[in-house]
Amino acid sequence: MPTISKEIFAEKIDELMYWGLILFSLTFFFDLPINLLTIVFVLGLIKLIFIRPRIKIRGKYIYFIAAFLVLVFVSVLFNTGGASFSSMFAAYKSRFMSPIMAFLLVFLFDFTKKRIAVMLFCMAVVFSLNSAAIIWQHFIFMTLRPVGFCTNTMLLAVSNIFIVPILLRLVFEKTLPGILRKLYLFTVIINIPAIIFSGTRIVWISLTLSSIITLLFYINDKKKAVAVIITAGLIITGIFMSSDKLEKRFEVITDHSMKIGDYTNSPNTERILMWESSLKMIRDYPLAGVGIDNFHELYKTKYKNPVALETPWHPHNVFLAMAVESGFIGFSGFIALFVYLYYNAIKIWRKSGSVAASVYFLSLLSYNISFLTDSLFCGHYLKLPTYMFWFITAAYLAMSGQIERKEG
Fold first, then answer.
1. Mean pLDDT score, 144-168
2. Same domain for 327 and 364
3. Beta partners for 403?
């Protein structure tokens, strides 16, 4: 009776992992209760039984990631905020440790260019279909802040923040097949009105900045680049002016109005009040913070400004959230991690003109801008953005040639 070699078993599991990632690329909009990245990770662990590849990562990524996790954990040891250590550790594991498995896939799965291209193709198709659904909902059903078939507004926002800069950058990559570049261009164009209609202001800001950088860098004729930017700006302005609701939503970007006694505080006003309270928490708990998941209770009972109307679970700013919850100890690891990611991406981009490095830089920049007004990294309630960040980082390392992989 013929026997099946360990290598064949490993190949079959690797194929299952690949199809799991394809399914993730087609369904990430839905924020499914089953975490497909976790399933793929578990399959990767099973694969290790049959074959153990030798992986070497150039650079100091592992050190900075480990330092980030260790320093946040140390802050937990210093301050549990009155909660039991077991509950604090559970929160730490859920928010900080578990998403790392999306990065660890780089040790378990072979991220080839073809595989990444197929996953990105799937994402572009899903984005295009969802954008068409958003436009349909806006004009036919007059839906306020439509999301298409996405699960919620913030998941749609972070998906746009991550993926649209990647697609726009690849439109200018002449080594790609023309049909792919046309698909990416179509996806970006149809996303413009969809992003506006969905009404998330930080997405407007972050994608505007990353798009301007991309157009100025990759349209060789700078006059043409400026003309494209101006034309796009006029079209976008026209879209905003087509609806009173959109105009008002745009005006809210700089609105700080407040009327005590009536629920009319602008979102900006509420955020400023949250940030002021967060700074007071940082002043009172500078070293180890208030403890993970303790912001809400302390804000409600001790630090909430009397004129504030909301009682949030986080301060709507990742930098403040990290500093509040884990103090200088955890915050230093967080800052060091992202400084290193930028440093290495810029260094590789300048040295070799790496497409992967430029793509990652633009996506990371867009993501980090979103940190200013929401909690989309190791956040309290929406976990998928953190998984996506680590997954994109793993794919970037593979695509930029920073991984040495030997099977067996």
1. 92
2. yes
3. 57
